[in-house]
Amino acid sequence: QVQLVESGGGSVQAGGSLSLSCAASGSTYSSYCMGWFRQAPGKEREGVAGIYRGGGSTYYADAVKGRFTISQDNAKNTVYLQMTSLKPADASMYYCAAYRCSISPDTYEDIWYFFTWYDYWGQGTQVTVSS
């Protein structure tokens, strides 16, 4: 079992920055690949960024590449999502997710954005971006 708690959401003007955190507790954190997803009202949940277990390779959705950065602090069992140059289209509920990851980085690269792979989810944190 893994418990995930997100924090750091809020309201920001377009062009601004926010940093989200996801603190994990419970099972062996280093065994999990971690993902950030978002879901706006009436839309499907979409993958934003993923990081291979142990803080290895990182992956991003095209919509956020170059603006968002996912990172991980293994000592703190925390994964971060640094968001810059925010756009109104980035406004959404953001979720952290953990996938018990026994696959290679190459395989994870192919599946990280499919929310169905993930075993545990946080409660979400709201990001609002005004134009």
Description:
With 131 residues, the protein is mainly β. It has one helix at residues 105-111; strands spanning 2-7, 10-13, 18-26, 32-39, 46-51, 58-60, 68-73, 78-83, 92-100, 120-121, 125-130. Strands 2, 4, 5, 6, 9, 10 and 11 form a seven-stranded mixed beta sheet that branches. The protein starts with a strand and ends with a strand. The model has no long low-confidence stretch (mean pLDDT 95).
The overall pLDDT, averaged over residues, is 95
What oligomeric state best describes the polypeptide chains here?
single chain
Q: List the secondary-structure elements in sequence, H or E.
A: EEEEEEEEEHEE
Number of helices: 1
**Structural class estimated from helices and strands:** mainly beta
Give the N-terminus to C-terminus distance in angstroms.
40 Å
Question: Which word captures the global form?
Answer: globular
